[in-house]
Amino acid sequence: MRVIVFGATGKTGRHVLRLALDRGHEVTAFGRSADRLDPAPGLSAFKGDVLEPGSVDAAVEGHDGAVVCLGSTGLRDSTTLTAGTANIVTAVDGHGVGRLLVLSAAGVGDSWAQIPWSSRLMFKTMLRNILADHRAQEAVVEQSGADWTIVRSAVLTDKPATGAVTATKTGLTKRISRIDLAGYLVDQITDASLARQAISVTT
User: Fold this and answer.
1) Residue 38 in contact with residue 100, Cβ under 8 Å?
2) Looking at the DSSP assignment, which residues form a beta bridge with residue 35?
3) Residue 22 CB neighbour total at 10 angstroms
4) Pair 74, 48: CB distance under 8 Å
């Protein structure tokens, strides 16, 4: 498939990019520093900003799937995820992109009961803006006509891959390595069994 990865230069996006290439996908990396990525077979780079609708629209055209791994700009940021994802959804729907995967966080929506008390405390205090942004982001995704799946990540680590990922709608989430999360996201590019659903992932 021809896949575009938003946030491809971020900590999780880089893993998604590499694994998607390893599995034979043609991948476009979208980001403000995408032009700094090392060349690789099957990789195209599109330097752009998700907050610029025209840039997003031009990048999305011609792709079969999109993976959204956007990050907030800081603890006070409560709009970047929503605004950027809204531009992506508009482009995805406008160009008939069939598959849309969006990274969110365990604790959003009906997954609140799946997170430990420590995460709840963080979301109620220092991460409250990020939680609000993820909630609004998910609402935008749910309006898309694509086969979207929202992947709600447990607390992220930079530990090595375990290969053991649990996807659950009810179970408690703890932690997950970025590379394990990336592997799950790439798996879902060609697996639409969870289309138009949100799922939490943990190890």
Assistant:
1) no
2) none
3) 12
4) no
* Residues pairing with 156 in the sheet: 176
pTM value is 0.97
Amino acid symbol at 2: R
Q: Please name each of the domains of the chain with its CATH number.
A: 2-202 (3.40.50.720)
Write out the two tokens for 3: 């896949």
> Which H or E run includes 125?
none
CA distance 145 to 133: 21
Mean pLDDT of successive 10-residue segments in the chain (203 residues)?
Answer: 97 97 98 94 97 98 98 92 98 98 98 97 96 98 98 97 96 98 98 98 97
b/e sequence 39-71, b meaning 16+ C-beta within 10 Å: eeeebbbbebebeeeebbbebbeebbbbbbbbb
Q: Which two tokens stand for residue 150?
A: 């929202």
Q: Which runs of consecutive H residues, i.e. helices, occur in the chain?
A: 11-22, 53-60, 80-94, 117-124, 128-141, 178-189
Output the furthest CA–CA distance in the chain (Å, rounded).
44
Q: How far apart are the first and last CA of the chain?
A: 28
SS3 annotation, 85-117? HHHHHHHHHHCCCCEEEEEEECCCHHHHHHCCH
